[in-house]
Amino acid sequence: MAAATLAPNDLEAFWMPFTANRAFKAAPRMLVRAKDMHYWSSDGRKLLDGAAGLWCVNAGHSREPIVKAIQEQAAEMAFAPSFQFGNPKAFQLASRIAALAPGDLDHVFFCNSGSEAVDTALKIAIAYWNAKGQGARQRLIGRVRGYHGVGFGGIAVGGITPNRKMFGSSLPAADHLPATYNRAEQAFSRGEPAWGGHLADELENIVGLHDASTIAAVIVEPMAGSTGALPAPKGYLQKLRAICDKHDILLIFDEVITGFGRLGHAFAAERYGVVPDMICFAKGVTSGAVPMGGVIVRGGLYEAFMKGPEHVVELFHGYTYSAHPMACAAGLATLDVYESEKLFENARALEDTWADAVHGLKGLPNVVDIRTIGLVGAIDLAPKDGAPGKRGFEAMEQSFHHQDLLIRIAGDSIVLSPPLILNEDHIDEMIDKVARTIRALA
Ligand SMILES: Cc1ncc(COP(=O)(O)O)c(C=O)c1O
């Protein structure tokens, strides 16, 4: 017998991710259409997208060439297995991504999300040391305030308390560098804060505690996105690279947010002149149009696995939808848009104008810090007494319902990361809407 039918517009059945479900279902923020820099709400309003969806729609919404590529691929071959078989676009896309990556980062493992990319990179790191006969190297070092998705590996190295505390102790062999943010030293920084490079030296203490022979890899975001856009301090990433080199520890950059132009380069690794051993990517690779993630690895790592009988699988890892043909088609079309419209260059060219505009919000009520880097901006609002996160939540509701602007919040911070097709008029309009939002809450 059929179960009682839910009303077609019932909001109850969908358990929404990273959402205050009860608050949402009482006052929904429903998105029904999108084009270029805008969303449309279910009540017909056109909203400026200040968040590139969720840090991913870097080429803008529903772009013609990407839509066409997905449609054509769906008709030609919507699915093909990547275990023991291939589809041509997977190889093309891997080559294109490898060509964008610095140094000898020249092999690409595909998956479907940032969380899977992180877990894949962590597993490759541990397996690599096994393959090299150093199986004791299993420890993984993340950072406080880091976000590496929601898999068990990602939360083990991640540094966001609520993401960890409900889920047991996760991987035992994880440790953490200290967070790089210090408001007293860094408030209202533009780009990389001058203070904090020395915090990378903490890695030496961690190595001293555990011994390098037990450490597989260090994983960090070049800019911590989800905890309020915290750029790496000047010299920090270069120092991490030097310490990892000294102790033969792999360095992984989680570029799920910073990849594909967010900081004005294909990868932040290029901006900082630091070549990690692996780069995790997702989001911008398809401009969010089809789920896709992946890990770019240095040739030497790949080669370490290419031994033994040739008919035997070298890495026992992969996902049914790894290198999904529709994601590959979307990825190739997205990279074409980035290239032909010079969107990474646009992000770089606008960085100063953007920073001027965002920092112009200084002095508005409750604004206690502002940070900018690339096409990212974060505005920290003072929390309400006894209700952390409430002012941030109200900012999101105010901007959505009354200012026709979509923003992302991290606690009491407003975080902006617009599509890279942004122009100066969009910047003026967006910052004006943010200012109105902040004033309305005062
Ligand atoms: C740095 C970083 N890593 C991993 C992830 C997880 O990606 P996903 O939500 O696609 O699993 C995110 C998501 O925002 C991220 O910002």
Structural features, described:
It is a single chain. The chain is built from 16 helices and 17 strands. The strands form four sheets. The protein has a seven-stranded mixed beta sheet with strand order 4-12-11-10-7-5-6, with helices on both faces. α3 runs antiparallel to α13, α14 packs parallel to α16 and α15 crosses α16. The chain is globular, with a radius of gyration of 22 Å. The structure holds pyridoxal-5'-phosphate.
The domain count comes to 2
Under CATH, the topology of the largest domain is which? Aspartate Aminotransferase, domain 2
Name the CATH superfamily classification of the largest domain. Answer: Type I PLP-dependent aspartate aminotransferase-like (Major domain)
The strand order across the widest sheet is 4-12-11-10-7-5-6
The largest sheet, given as strand count, sense and whether it forms a barrel, is: 7 strands, mixed
- Tally of DSSP β-strands: 17
Helix fraction, binned, reads: 25-40%
Name of the CATH first level of the largest domain: Alpha Beta
Low-confidence stretches: none
By secondary-structure content and strand pairing, the structural class works out as alpha/beta
Note the total helix count: 16
> End-to-end span in angstroms?
55 Å
